[in-house]
Amino acid sequence: MNIDLKGKNALVCGSTKGIGFAIAKQFALLGANVTMMARNGALLEKVIRDLPCTEGQKHDFLVADFSKPEQVKEAIETKVQAHYTYHILINNSGGPSPGPALGAKEEEFVNAFNTHLISSHYLVQGVVNGMKQNGFGRIINIISTSVKIPLKGLGVSNTIRGAVANWSKTLATELAPMGITVNNILPGATGTDRLKQIIEGKAVKQNESIDEVNKEMLSEIPMNRFAQPDEIAYAACFLASDYAAYIIGINIPVDGGRTGNL
After folding, report:
1. Count of CB atoms situated within 10 Å of the CB of 177
2. CB neighbours of residue 82 within 10 Å
3. From the CB of residue 137, how many other CB atoms can be counted at a distance below 10 Å?
4. Which helix (H) or strand (E) holds 155?
5. Engineered SS bond to 156: which of 42, 96, 101, 161, CB 3.0-4.6 Å?
6. Contact status, residue 12 vs residue 23, Cβ threshold 8 Å
7. Within 13 Å and on the Cβ side, how many CA atoms surround 166?
8. pTM reported for the whole predicted model
C-alpha cells in the first residue's frame, strides 16, 4: 500500500512536540497540507519550518490553549469561516498530571474534561460540515491504553480518557453514514516529555532511581522498549488514508504488547 494524502487538509493538535509533531511530520511527508495547533505561538512558528513541503503544500498553524475551550472554538470557527475545509482531524493534547484519583481535587477533573473532551468536541463541530460536504472525513483521537486497563497513578487521566473514548464511539456511529470515520489510537509508553515526567514522578514517590523505574516499566512491555513517536504516527497515517474507510469506532493500542487484554 502506498498511502497518499496529497490534496488533503489535516488539523493536528498538540503538534509542537512528541506524538503530535511526529504525526504532523508524517502527514506532510505523505503530501497533506498541515495545520498545526497548540498554545505556544512562538514555538509553532519555529517548528512549522521543519514540516516537508516536497509536494508544494502550504502549512499553517492556529494558536489556542486547550485548557480554555472557548479559545479553541474561536480559532477553528475563524478558520472555517474563511472557507477552509479539513479532511483530517487529530485530537491530541498533553495528559493530566499524574497522581491517585482519590486525592485529586475537583478542579483537576474539570480542567482535564475541558482540555480533552470539550475542546475536542468544539473541533469536531468546527470541521464536520466540511467533511460531510466532501463525503470524506477522518477524526482520530490520541488517547491512552488506560481506556482498556486503568494505569496506576494516573487517576484523573484514566477517568477522562475513558469519557473521551466513549464520546468517540458515539460519534463514530453518528457520522459513519456520511463517510466520516472516528477512531482512537491508544499509545503505550512513548519516548516523549510526558513519559519523562511520569518516570521522574515515580522515582520520587517510590524513592528509586530513574534507571530503576525505567527497568520496571520496560519489564511490563513484551518488546522491552518504549515506543518512538513516529510509530504512533504511522498508525495515524493509515487511519487517515483511503485504506481505512471501513474501520470505524475502534481503539487501536500501539503499545508493544503491554495492554493485558484484547
Report:
1. 7
2. 7
3. 24
4. helix 155-175
5. 96
6. yes
7. 6
8. 0.96
DSSP summary character for residue 116: I
Assess contact for 140 and 88: CB atoms under 8 A.
Answer: yes
The SS3 call for residue 227 is strand
128-182 pLDDT tens trace: 999 999 999 999 999 999 999 999 889 999 999 999 999 999 999 999 999 999 9
Task: Provide the angle, in degrees to the nearest 10, between the axes of the packed helices 106-113 and 155-175.
Answer: 30
- 185 in helix, strand or coil? strand
- In the chain, the largest separation of any two C-alpha atoms, in whole Å, equals 56
How many whole angstroms separate alpha carbon 176 and alpha carbon 143? 20
110 CB-side CA count, 13 A: 4
Which domains, and CATH codes, for the chain? Answer: 9-189+228-254 (3.40.50.720), 192-226 (no CATH)
Q: Which three cell numbers stand for residue 206?
A: 517510590
Distance CA 252, CA 232 (A): 10
Amino acid at 34: V
